[in-house]
Amino acid sequence: MPPTPPQQPTDANEPxxxxxxxxxxFGVEVARVVGDTLTPDRVPLIDDWCRRQRxxxxxxxxxxxxxxxxxxxxxxxxxxxxxxxxxxxxxxxGQGRATPHVDVGPVRETEIDALRDIARTSYRDSxxxxxxxxxxxxxxxxxxxxxxxxxxGAAATVLVARQADRPIGYATCPIDPATGWGSIGLLGVxxxxxxxxxxxxxxxxxxxxxxxxxxxxxxxxxxxxxxxAQRLYQRAGFVTRSLQLYxxxxxx
Length: 252
Known about the structure:
By secondary structure, the chain is an alpha+beta fold.
């Protein structure tokens, strides 16, 4: 999932919050619904707030087990763009899977441009590509920007898979300061290296990194439509933590 920079303070009674970074990047007013449920009474308050703030694009991350929320979202013009699946594991031993001729190690500054190129083609299952209103070139560049920021310190570490000293994949690994848990924020593999175990090697390396840091566990988020990624994490010992529904609503 894309990074969520700190947002501007908002009144606790307001139903939505402006997303400053997203608004600047996409060139339209972007906001998110506060909370993960909807009621018939909340929907008009949300629409009124968005009209007053001239919001073009509203994001809503909803619970998947609340029928009223789903009905309200559908009747209010929200469109589901993603099933957000969060996996977790407390077992950090990994599977010990070796990928021939592939070495994994910390990122080098000279590799960042190559990783940005990998990022631009690695996340086509995300909600940004599923929504036809989001420009594809902006979605590509968003993940390239996120990758570069993680490489330059936003993540606790970035692990790079190399073949003949050429970067062919990477995993970014931030740590949640509130819980101490690590996560795989982004995992990308070059188009010509997919299907050869590079992702599995990166997941094992992320687990080993978390174990060395003595973290309590590791999480990762992927899309419900990305069955390949789900199988990758399940084979590494991850289990489902939560399912959430991502909705977009456009006012223009």
